[in-house]
Amino acid sequence: MNRIVVLGGGESGVGSAVLAQLKGFDVFLSDNGKLSDESKFCLKKYGIPFEEGGHTHELIINANEIIKSPGIPEIVPVMREIRSRDIPVISEIEFTGRYCTAKKICITGSNGKTTTTSLIYFLLKNAGLNVGLAGNIGKSYAYQVATEKFDYYVLELSSFQLDGMYNFKADIAVLLNITPDHLDRYNYNFQSYINSKFRITQNMRKEDCFIFCSDDEITMGNLKKIVLKTKMLPISQTEIIEKDGACVIGEKLVANYDNSEFEILINELSLNGRHNVYNSMATAVAGKILDINNSVIRSSLTGFKGIEHRLEKVRKVCGIEFINDSKATNVNSAWYALESMHGKTIWIVGGTDKGNDYSSLYNLVKEKVKAIVCLGIDNRKILDNFGHLTPIIIETRSAKEAVEKSFEIGESGDTVLLSPACASFDLFENYEDRGRQFKKAVEELES
Q1: Number of domains comprising the chain
Q2: Got the DSSP string for 60-106?
């Protein structure tokens, strides 16, 4: 019997273990940290042996294949030993794709992928399609394939998930943009990160569809040398797309596929901001490819309510607006958030730096930011980059302290924006934890 070892006992790992168990593999799950009660309950329910609090190497190196959770870096000792023994290592997505017969719409990009994934899923649900949401969002893809039956999956794919994919194939792939992110995981080699993002197109055939942003210089600089087969559907806000794809004409978003057109006024879109026009374009094109009725595309683009931790309006206190953009874990994402601000902004920024270059934010900070509140353990790069650009810059060590200090600085008409441009792991479990602690602190303010 083939032996599969799953590294990591979060939702992705547990789902992979359940699918492997149901497919008849000899399965073992190992986690270096502590498993949640939910994870342990699920593993016991399916009779899957596991360990937590460390890796027993002899129980791992006898695997025929390793399914690695995306958060585990290659530099940890257990991965070095696995690589030295040439044991194949794959992602949950790769493994699950072997058993998934559904049509797969896959989305990646440095920014906007969660919003676009959620929006496309919302569209397909509104169209009455039998669809699952998975990948870097929603329930485990593997667990859903093991226990449910969907005709479509909308999958958000991070670069880490893409790195472990080899034979998996998307039916519709969306690449929104590429900006420097997670460079610490790619030895600070931007081309390696670019190549990772383009893995979303691997194995695609000429009848499959690739939606990409033709306004993105990095994408266009690599497109022709990487993407060899598939229908190409560009989206653009700067040029007219004559055939299949989407563009802005005057005040309208116009999407075309196979001589069928959809259009909507930009100001009718439920999601505001230039970056969200791209997200809506990609969704509209996907809808046309899937032959969804224009009225359903329109109602979905006008009725979508947004996602938690992405420019989420929390509360207005004494005339000060608090916005949770905790999902902005890189510089480009924070740029979009700052660019969409009106009036004076108190910017909460900081966390675990991922090799960030903050220079693209300088002009926006000078123009819009009245104060910076650092939220991190090591704030030296924030202080060095922005200390001369704003009259007030202070350091805090908790979401509660950051909110209270921002409230003290703020005046009616100001906006307090949590848009960290950094990972969250110095003070928080993840960006969701950071965002929820921020919201809790805002709710506790006395107006």
Answers
A1: 3
A2: HTT-SEEEE-TTS-TTSHHHHHHHHTT--EE-HHHHHHTT--SEEEE
